[in-house]
DNA sequence: AGCAAAATCTTTACAGTGTAAAAATTGCGA
DNA sequence: TCGCAATTTTTACACTGTAAAGATTTTGCT
């Protein structure tokens, strides 16, 4: 197996550095650079793997429910669950600063994930969504679902929800809060 | 003026390093360390300033509207506008990894921002919210609004919405999308 | 098989970085 | 003014990403 592939088996993303992955892979410190060009390249390649895992989890979750509503809820929960299980990877995937979205593998993986989201929204609206041309309503529905779940996930991973949770009635769980958030009427203003 | 204070006048947050702020402040490279302890301390102090600015913008926006609905919308727009005007700062404020939330100044500034959000939600629900004890409904409403706006903001700053925007009907603006997202019915599942 | 070319890896080097400890300087109150 | 504490500089170290050049291995082709 090539060093490049060994590098991509890393699971802890905390202290991710070119030299660290080189050490772990048992190669010289400059070897990874040859494969990935630079740190941005390595991170982008890892993020692409993340998007594929992430998408697979969502597809699997969507297959479980019976109604469109159940499927949507299952997918939303799978979204948060994936992020909780792989917080470092989720951060990598959605922190554009160190990402090169023009890399084909990353671009494609991210696009497939987005298509899954759009398809899911179309399903729940009982209409076929043409990704190339969205109506305002469709775009709003997609962005609403995405913002809601992504925002919740980010706040959760960044520890911004612990205070709210602690101040909720005794016995309240994160799951309960998440469901209540999704099911309620949105208009906050 | 002390070097420490000069450091905090930095506006570009892109290449923020201890040594960079030292250079800009015209002090030795190790001077900032004495004031802030370490990089986490510096970043946390900057984030506290950000939260205060941010909160001021929200309060100002809330004063403009007549009805509770108008106020809420104005605040939501001010939220996104602040993040667009200070993307580096917004990232700093919500990227916990390099933040020390136990720092009194940061903790307090972040709490005031949260109280503003909670108060805004209480206003739109026509009820007084006791921050120390939230009902499930109240917590869900707060987290829903926060997730929605924070998620939208993050996706926007990370460039994840440009594709959606490009595929919307000709003439659609970000503002239009944002309003449509907020006004629609939420249940994505 | 043999050999040239391409891919892969190592070595060496350099400019930055955060952080720690000691030395030097400054400011200020008694 | 003197002394002490706050502040800053100096020096040092172990890291980091990146670049360039040489060494090695793998691959493809006749």
Name of the CATH architecture of the largest domain in chain A: Orthogonal Bundle
How many alpha or pi helices of chain A? 10
- What is the averaged pLDDT score of chain A? 90
SS strand fraction of chain A: under 5%
Q: What integer value in Å does the Rg of chain A equal?
A: 19 Å
Are there runs of chain A of 5+ residues with pLDDT below 50, and where?
Answer: 1-5
CATH topology of the largest domain in chain A: Tetracycline Repressor, domain 2
Major protein interface: A-B, 64 and 63 residues
Largest sheet of chain A: none
The CATH superfamily of the largest domain in chain A appears as Tetracycline Repressor, domain 2
Number of strands of chain A: 0
Oligomer: homodimer
Series of secondary-structure elements of chain A, N-terminal to C-terminal: HHHHHHHHHH
- Using the alpha-carbon principal axes, give the shape of chain A: globular
